[in-house]
Amino acid sequence: MAVGIFDSGLGGLTVLEAAQARLPQVDFLYFGDSANAPYGVRDADDVHKLTRACVESLWARGCDLVILACNTASAAALRRMQEAGVPPGKRVLGVFVPLIEALTERRWGDNSPPREVAVKHVALFATPATVASRAFQRELAFRAIGVDVEAQACGGVVDAIEDGDMILAEALVRSHVDALKRKMPAPEAAILGCTHYPLMDRTFQTALGPDVKVFSQADLVAESLADYLARYPQMAGSGAPGYLTTGDPARVSDRATQFLRRQITFRAA
Length: 269
Ligand code: DGL
Prior knowledge:
This protein is of the alpha/beta class. The protein has 2 domains: 3-95 and 218-268, Rossmann fold; 97-216, Rossmann fold (3-Layer(aba) Sandwich). It has 11 helices and 12 strands. It has helices at residues 12-22, 44-60, 71-84, 96-103, 128-133, 135-143, 157-162, 166-183, 201-208, 217-231, 249-260; strands at residues 3-7, 28-32, 65-68, 91-93, 115-116, 121-126, 144-145, 148-153, 189-192, 213-216, 242-245, 267-268. The strands form 3 sheets. It has a 6-stranded parallel sheet, sandwiched between helices. The protein has a 4-stranded parallel sheet with strand order 8-6-9-10, with helices on both faces. Helix 4 (96-103) packs across helix 6 (135-143) and helix 4 crosses helix 10 (217-231). The longest helix has 18 residues, at 166-183. The model has no long low-confidence stretch (mean pLDDT 93). The structure holds D-glutamic acid.
């Protein structure tokens, strides 16, 4: 049994890497649905159906706890899956809440009413599906009042990253930041609301300027996972770690090795 980490493709590796660094004693089974990536241009029903099938596959492989290391899946599928009920002893968690807790300076499980927070102007960069879902704004409204969120749907960035075309990805990030700044000239904080984007974090920070605090999910999710496993240690396991893909294992392994700068070998799911 190992903790399952799911993403549409390679983006969740940013979360996996942080989780491995924070929890070296825990085994992880990574699942990338590369054959169907990107999810960010699909409709919510489609994302829900694909996500559900992959999570069920991870549960069936002995992962009692699955992390949706994908904002698009978290936005479109998590609530539906939890409301439909998960099998006994299984859990699925998303990546929004740790990010929003950091932005609103709340502790895990703080269910007090929403209150004013220091940051008032927030730029959200995410996939078109995540932006359309408004899930981030909904979760934020449960915790904070008076925060102005301007969302920028970053079309094309995930495809470029999955294709390994980092020059195109950089050009697209710069143009999406420009578009955001036309709508909100002086954001105080920026949320990288897609797990692929930490691979471009320097480009985001440079384009946004040094005064903008860029929140990226990997470390925040790893910290929340550590907190969760300290409370529910039976959800962590040992054995059967690895990397699974619905895409071409050789191609996906090459890209992953390039991103993480260490040998990563995917097997066919
Ligand atoms: N990395 C994913 C996310 O966090 C999904 C990207 C995609 O497949 O479009 O949203």
